[in-house]
Amino acid sequence: MLTRRQLLRASAAAPILLNRAPQLFAAEYDLVIKGGRVLDAAQRIDRVADVAIRGGKIVAIRPNIASSSAAEVIEAGGKLVTPGLIDIHTHVAEKELTPAQCLSTGVTSQVDGGSRGALNVDELIKVAQNAPNRVRILLNISGRGLADGGTELLDIDKADVPAARRAVERSRDWIVGIKARLSRSVAGEHDLEAVRRARQVADPLKIPIMVHVGDTASPLPGILALLRPGDIVTHMYAPAPHGMLDDNGRVLPQVLDARRRGILFDVGNGRTAHWTWEVAERAIQQGFLPDTISSDLTAAGLTDQVINLPNVLSKFLLLGMPVDQVIARATTNAARAIPELRSYGTLRTGAIADVAVFDLREGDFDFVDNYKTRRTGHRKLVPYAVVMGGKRVNNA
Predict the structure, then answer these.
(1) Which among 82, 131, 289, 297 could bridge 99 via Cys, Cβ 3.0 to 4.6 Å?
(2) Rounded to two decimals, what is the model's pTM?
(3) What is the mean pLDDT of the chain?
(4) Which residue ranges make up each domain of the chain?
(5) Reading across the β-sheet that carries 175-181, which strands appear in turn?
(6) Contacts with 240 (C-beta within 8 Å, 6 or more apart), sequence order
(7) What sign does the CA torsion over 146, 147, 150, 153 have?
(8) How far apart are CA 264 and CA 258, in angstroms?
C-alpha cells in the first residue's frame, strides 16, 4: 500500500508525465503526402488520396489520413503524386551532370546508357555507389564507351566479348544490361556485328541489350531481327534513313512484329538526330506509343532540348498522351524494362517509398525536338517535392 508521502510524490509527477506525452509516443507515420492526385499504373490508381510512409516504405493510400498522425506532412492539394521516376537512359559520367541533379527533378532511379565499357566502367561504378539516388549501368559493348569520343565501334575489335562478360560478372550489382550504339558515325558498317557481340555477353548472363538506332548503316529490320524479348530499342522516333517509318509514313511491319515479340521501344530524347515531332506524331497516330520515355540526359542537355525528364514527359502531353499514361512510361513501364528495378516504380503497400510530387502547370510552354523545331504545349510537369526511401530530399 502507498504511503501518503508516496501518493503525494506520484501526484506531483503526473502533470510532468502528461506534458511529456507527445515526446513519449512516436507518430504513427514518418511522412504523409496529403491531398494530391495519386497516379500509380501498377495498381491502376488515379484518385485523390493521402500517401502514408513509415520506415522507408509505403504503408497506406487512402483519403483523410490525419496530419496529426505524421511526423512530417507534404501538402499536395492540386498536385500529382507519383512513384519516383525511373529514367532508363541517362549519362552520369560527366562531372557537370550529377545524380543529385536528376534526383531533384523526381528521378529516384536512373540507368547510365553506355557511357563506359569494360576497360573503364569502374569510374562509373564509383559514381553509382556514391549517388543519393539509385544508379545502375548499361555496359557499353566497346571497351572504353563514350570515352573514345563517340566513335567507339568503328574499330569492332574494341568490342571484346570476354572482357565485357568479366566486367559484368565482377560488378553484377551495378551493371544491369549491355548497350550498343549503332549509328553510322559510331559503328560504321559494324552495327549488326556489334549486336551479335552484345548478344554473346548478355545471353549467358540473362540481361537485356539496349540498342541505339537512327542513321544506321543497316536497315532497322535487320537490327530488330537480332533482338530478343526484353531488349530495348532507344531513339525509337529517329528520322530517316533507316527509321521506324516507311516511305509513306507508316510504321514498318517488322517494327510491329518486334513489339509483338516483346521488344521494348524507348524514346531517348537526347540532342542529336534522335527524334522529330513528325516521326513521333505519325507513329502515335497509328497507335505506336513508347513503352518507356527516357531523357538521354547529358551535361549539355541540362540547358538544351532535354532539360530534365519531367520536361521530356511534358512533350508527350503536347503530343496528346494522357498524363497518367505519360507517367506510367517513366515509372511502372520503366521498372519492368530493367529487371533489377522491377520492385520500384510503384506506390504499392510495402514498396520502397520513392515518391515524386509535381505541379501540372497550365499556360504556354515551348518545347523543341532534336532539330530545334519549336512547338507550344499548354501543360508542363514541374517538380515540387521528392521523397527517396521515405525521406524528403527537396522542395522545388
Answers:
(1) 131
(2) 0.93
(3) 94
(4) 84-341
(5) 85-90, 107-117, 134-140, 175-181, 209-212, 232-234, 264-266
(6) none
(7) negative
(8) 8
pLDDT digits (tens, 9 = 90+) for 172-202: 999 999 999 999 999 999 999 999 999 999 9
The C-alpha cell at 355 is: 515518391
**CA distance readout (Å), 302 to 21, 96, 165, 194, 265:** 49, 9, 33, 30, 24
- Joined grid coordinates for residue 317: 502531353
The answer to whether the beta carbons of residues 309 and 85 sit under 8 Å apart is: yes
pLDDT tens sequence across 20-33: 334 446 899 999 99
Mean of pLDDT values over 101-113: 98
Mean pLDDT of 318-328: 98
CA geometry: angle at 279 spanning 277 and 284, to 5°?
90
Second-level CATH architecture of 84-341: Alpha-Beta Barrel (3.20)
Distance CA 31, CA 22 (A): 17
Pairing status of strand 107-117 against strand 355-368: unpaired
Whether residue 378 contacts residue 363, with contact meaning beta carbons closer than 8 Å, is answered with: yes
